[in-house]
Every structure is written in structure tokens, then in C-alpha cells.
Cell division protein FtsX (Streptomyces endophytica), 303 residues
Amino acid sequence: MRAQFVLSEIGVGLRRNLTMTFAVIVSVALSLGLFGASLLMRDQVSTMKGYWYDKVNVSIFFCNKNDAETGANCAKGAATQQQKDDIKAELNRLPIVQNVQYESSDQAYKHYKEQFGDTPVAGLVTPDQLPESFRVKLKDPTKFKVIKSAFSERPGVQEVQDQRDTVEPLFNLLNGMNIAALCVMGLMLVVALMLIVNTVRVSAFSRRRETGIMRLVGASSFYIQMPFILEAAIAGLLGAAFACVLIVGGKYLLVNNWLAKKIQVINFIGWDSVAAVLPLVLLIGLLMPALAAFFALRKYLKV
């Protein structure tokens, strides 16, 4: 009988505040959708970092005959074979180095032509203008500074370059987008909480006579509050369910059917990451409105 009464009160409350309940559902759906998308974007950035950082190398460029005026390291002209052999021997002794590959000027020019093809800049460079280099693969790419500090000032070394610099701006952009999404999510979450509190207060005010009678006949505070809390929880759970639909739809339509076809060099996150986020979204959608309603009712049901 008590359960039937609580359920009937939930139905009455949802019907009386249909417009505000709909607003709560939409706000919760948007805020939790952004929350889930932010978590997935964070996983995507981490995946991309692990993929690209594992592939980039540290390049040690040697002086050639055209670099005599570029710096003190190249003052004596092109790097000698002995200087190259000494550097390679030291690199092979370092525990952080996985392997070392030599690239000649002709090989560097070939890669240059492959990159720029038939563009006008392709004819501006000749093979003798491109330096020889060692491509150093590190076991831990974050240890780049060890290589730079050890070899950047060595005679015959023109420059020590970390290829991570070419992909770092992309990761910074993605991280910035993730922070922006979290900020918008926080704003939407505040709006959703305000709507939940106002909806509960309006519902409690419209049924103040019924709650007053229940208080007089000895009903406990928890029993009186239960219909209002469940109303908010149901609205939040519906919003969370719509958020899950948005997340799954975004993964299927935006990522799998568009981005994955347009940008094939990126290893996008899989459905397992989405499946890990959805239960958290549903849990927050259920608990957040219920707790907001509970604290909002502590004042309005003291009759």
C-alpha cells in the first residue's frame, strides 16, 4: 500500500510539473553528455600520445660544409667520421636508447622529396644542403632532455631535435578543447541542479497541504520526502539515458562513420571505452538529482 501511494504521488508530481521536468531532463542530458564526451576525449588524447610518442624519434643533426657560420659547434665545418662514430658509440651505451639509425644526406633528400612532391619548394633544396643525422629511438620518449643535454654542445652536432614538437601543438589543442568542454559541462550541470531544486520546491509547494496532513498523522520525514526524491531521480535517470544515447550516437556517427574515414592515421578509441563511461553517466544521473532534491526538501518540508 505504501509503495502504491509513493508511486501515485510520483506520477502526480511529474504530471503537475511536466514542463520543468522536461527542462531538467534536457539539462541533465546535455551536461552528462558533455561529461561523457570529455572523459572519452581525455582517453583519446592519452591513446594518441601513447601511439605517436612511441613512434617519434630524437634526431641528432650533424654539421655539413655549409654550416660553418651557424654556430660554434660547426665552426670547423662538416662533422668528421670520428665524431659520428664516437657519438654513436655513446648512444649505444645509454640504457634509455632502444636503437640508432643513420640517415645520409641523400636519404634525407629523398624523404624531403616524398614530403613536398612537386610543390614549388621542392626544388629549393639540394642533397648537400640537408644534414646527415642519427635517428635515435628511445625506450621512454620523455627522456629526450637526456639526449639533448649530452650531445647538443658536441663538436660536429648542428642540432638535437625532438620530433614530439611537431605533434605537441595538436595535443595541446585537444587538451584545450577538453577543458572547454568540461567548463561548458560544469555550467550546464549548475543549470540542471538549479532546475532540479526549483522543480522540487514548486512540487513541494503545490502539495504542501498533503504533506502537512501526512505530517499530522505521523508520517516520517523520509516517507514524505520519498516521492519528491524519486521524481527528481527519475527525471535525472531519463536525462542520463538520453546522454548515453548522445554518446553512443556520437561515437557511431561522428567517430566511426566520419572521422575514422577522414583521418586514418589516428587510432581512435573503441567501444570498450564508451562502455566504461556509460555506467558512470547513469549513476551520476541517478544520484545527483536525488541528492539535490533531498537537501532542497529539508527546509520546505519542515511543517
Observations:
- The chain has a mean pLDDT of 78.
- The two ends are 24 Å apart (CA to CA).
- Residues 98 and 139 are 5 Å apart (CA to CA).
- Strands lie at 58-62, 97-103, 133-138, 157-162.
